[in-house]
Amino acid sequence: MAKFSVSSFIIFCLLFFAATSHFRQVSAIDDNIGAPDANNATAPDVNGGEQDDCPHSIVISVDEFGAKADGTPDNEAFEKAWEEACSSDEGVAVVVPEQKTYRLKPIRFNGPCKSSISIEIYGTIEASDDPSDYDQDLKHWIVFDKVENLLVEGGGTLKGNGKIWWDNSCKKNKDKALTFNENKNLVVNDLKIQDSQKMHLSFDSCENVQAYNLVVTAPEDSPNTDGIHITGTKNILVADTTVGTGDDCVSIVSGSENVQIRNIVCGPGHGISIGSLGKGNSEAHVSKVIVDGATISETTNGLRIKTWQGGSGSAEDIIFQNVQMNDVKNPIIIDQNYCDQDSPCEEQDSAVQVKNVAYKNIFGTSKTKVAIMFDCSKSHPCEGITMENVKLDGQGNEAATATCNNVQATTLGDVSPACQQSNNFMSWFLGKLYGDNKH
């Protein structure tokens, strides 16, 4: 192991302090987000915090362990460097040097580890483009599993080499580029992630996460290449990030709670989505989500909540605010009849309940005549939908419209287009009222 020089050590400490100072504040998100209030819908402050000591007095390079960056897989060197860092009693920084390109087959960096670790990616890591290299793991390329107090940063690039998979597109048997599974106290900062085979960056069952200053890109026609995917994760901030791919810029699915999406540039892609939820009659829960500050341009959807018929659970306490839409199809959409399959979906009575959703300060242009669509469930109408200062125009001189079925919507301030009170919702409400009073 090589020790830091004094100057390098000081610089590294400052960088690590800046990145990890958020941990304590992120864990407090749960105390700050409640049911949406369109008059006080502000995201909690996650700046501040305090780090007593710089934990990384040791730095190692993957080159020390035999990495060649010559076009052949360097898995063995990366695995040895990780084993050295993970077993150290002191904090360790693992460096991927700049101006080099390292090729990796699927690889897992497993915890738990004895101390904190920083992965400093200054160069480029690219995925093997040989499909046979993925026979042992068809779902993942790079995985960090069950690691606590991890920092991944450096300004480098991860290249997924996804084109060979896109050209033979199939929804299964494609890898996610970078997956964090059951990580706690995690910072991912200042990275570029490109051309993943499937999802680019996935947080699965993590807790206390900061992801910021990221650039995630893939061609608009690349299939199923979600930018950032959040599942089963609590207390997460995604901020100051640009995403343009062939699918959702950000997708938030079941088990996620206390989620902040702040200052995002989205497009091309499918917008920012909660869901899909409830597929296969499953139970799903998402709660306490804030999207605060986004520019969404030329996407197929803007702000979307999508649930399957037959599911159960809830999507609740959600705020979308301070969003600019530029020529977006379906700028605001709640779809409780989502059906992403070739054959028609069976109509079912049960549904994931959508309630307490606020839209505030949302402006821009719709590429479709219907700018706001609430297609809610007959059996479980959308409840507590609030819209304040929403102005979406159609293209040219054409006025945009709103389509609203089975929804309880309240408007505040200037809202255009606005829902007319849904007859379907009133029928449901009266049925519930008189039905409940029969006894």
From TrEMBL:
Its main location: secreted. This is endo-polygalacturonase. One of its GO terms (biological process) is fruit dehiscence. One of its GO terms (molecular function) is polygalacturonase activity. The active site is at H270. It is found in: Secreted, Cell wall. It is an enzyme of class 3 (hydrolase). Keywords: Cell wall, Cell wall biogenesis/degradation, Glycosidase, Hydrolase, Secreted, Signal. SMART domains: PbH1. InterPro entries: Glyco_hydro_28 (IPR000743), PbH1 (IPR006626), Pectin_lyas_fold (IPR012334), Pectin_lyase_fold/virulence (IPR011050). Belongs to the glycosyl hydrolase 28 family. PROSITE patterns: POLYGALACTURONASE (PS00502). Residues 1-28 form the signal peptide. Pfam families: Glyco_hydro_28 (PF00295). It catalyses: (1,4-alpha-D-galacturonosyl)n+m + H2O = (1,4-alpha-D-galacturonosyl)n + (1,4-alpha-D-galacturonosyl)m. It comes from Corchorus capsularis (Jute). Gene3D superfamilies: Single-stranded right-handed beta-helix, Pectin lyase-like. Its EC number is 3.2.1.15.
